[in-house]
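Query structure, 379 tokens:
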């Protein structure tokens, strides 16, 4: 039987896709209205975006329009991913020789390459410097249909692996820690009011700076009244059962405690009054959900933007009312983000990112405590 002839452009595109998806962990992103090109995203790489363009571009005017469209879409991606900087690599595999690429060499944040075969990659230092193994990983002994089966098989294996990991992360687990936190808050509420010791364990700057450091932890388990307790327990249940399933039990409880601690640190820094409640920890859980949703934005972007962020803003506005410790909310929110960075998001966070999260959290609480203690001791 004769060997089936395959299109060289299609073969080149498949090799590039296999390299960026299987070897460099890029993820295909869906962009409505875009045809004849594939967009790949990996925010951990120097090139956050890689475009593989197979549509035929026959002159400079059409190429200029492609650049205009690319810039517009990059701005949209930058906004959606909350990125400060987005660099893109545009690889064209079907470019007419009439297009004068020299006119477009210095396009900010977009590097352009015309690739007709694998060896053309060596013409571009910015590609080889960023992806030094690309030519090696695009060399195969298979030909024709056998090559296509190899390439599609590798991509499918990668996608299947991603699907299994996502299923593991998003499969709901029994929220044991969430139930335990609610039970602890309820038990402590009744015991603290029964024995009249709320003021002995509440957060207060004067008492903390004079040696009663435990208040920074105990204050997050105390509540002023039944309504306060009921509201916070309901919030822990709704938010916590989701986050516990996403992060895992150990990471979840660490984020909860560190968020409450950070909230209380900002509270004593900004206020000299008493405060009690799990609100700082709850805001930390919301911040953690935002951070988790950022890493899994393919699945949670609409939820984060339409539900979680508006909920945070609404509750911060409500917290401006007299008698509410909004500084504790803000501190918990920031602490929750940094704590989640430190413990990491499964299958997404890098060690470098986790170290940075730990450093940022330590700097945050260290600065607040240092300034607070220094200010009190000089009075």
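Result returned for the query:
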């Amino acid at each position: 039987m004769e060997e089936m002839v395959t299109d060289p452009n299609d073969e080149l595109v498949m090799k590039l896709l296999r390299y960026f998806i299987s070897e460099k962990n890029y993820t295909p992103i869906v962009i409505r209205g875009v045809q004849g090109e594939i967009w790949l995203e990996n925010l951990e790489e120097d090139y956050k975006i890689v475009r593989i363009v197979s549509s035929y571009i026959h002159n400079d005017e059409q190429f200029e329009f492609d650049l205009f469209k690319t810039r517009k879409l990059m701005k949209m991606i930058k906004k959606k991913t909350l990125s400060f900087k987005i660099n893109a690599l545009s690889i064209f595999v079907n470019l007419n020789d009439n297009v004068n690429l020299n006119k477009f060499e210095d396009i900010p944040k977009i590097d352009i390459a015309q690739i007709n075969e694998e060896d053309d990659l060596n013409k571009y230092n910015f590609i080889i410097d960023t992806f030094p193994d690309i030519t090696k990983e695009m060399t195969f002994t298979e030909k024709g249909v056998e090559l296509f089966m190899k390439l599609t098989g590798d991509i499918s294996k990668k996608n299947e692996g991603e699907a299994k990991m996502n299923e593991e992360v998003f499969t709901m687990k029994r929220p044991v820690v969430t139930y335990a936190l609610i039970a602890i808050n309820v038990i402590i509420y009744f015991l603290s009011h029964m024995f009249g010791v709320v003021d002995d364990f509440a957060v207060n700057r004067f008492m903390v700076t004079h040696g009663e450091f435990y208040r920074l932890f105990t204050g997050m388990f105390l509540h002023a009244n039944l309504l306060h307790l009921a509201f916070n327990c309901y919030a822990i249940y709704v938010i916590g059962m989701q986050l516990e399933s996403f992060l895992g039990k150990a990471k979840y409880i660490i984020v909860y405690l560190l968020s409450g601690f950070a909230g209380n640190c900002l509270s004593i820094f900004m206020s000299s009054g008493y405060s009690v409640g799990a609100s700082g920890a709850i805001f930390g859980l919301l911040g953690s959900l935002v951070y988790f949703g950022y890493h899994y934005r393919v699945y949670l972007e609409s939820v984060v933007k339409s539900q979680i962020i508006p909920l945070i803003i609404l509750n911060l506005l409500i917290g401006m009312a007299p008698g509410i410790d909004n500084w504790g909310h803000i501190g918990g929110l920031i602490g929750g983000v940094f704590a989640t960075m430190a413990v990491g998001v499964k299958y997404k966070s890098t060690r470098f990112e986790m170290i940075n999260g730990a450093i940022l959290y330590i700097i945050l609480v260290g600065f607040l405590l240092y300034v607070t203690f220094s200010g009190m001791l000089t009075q």
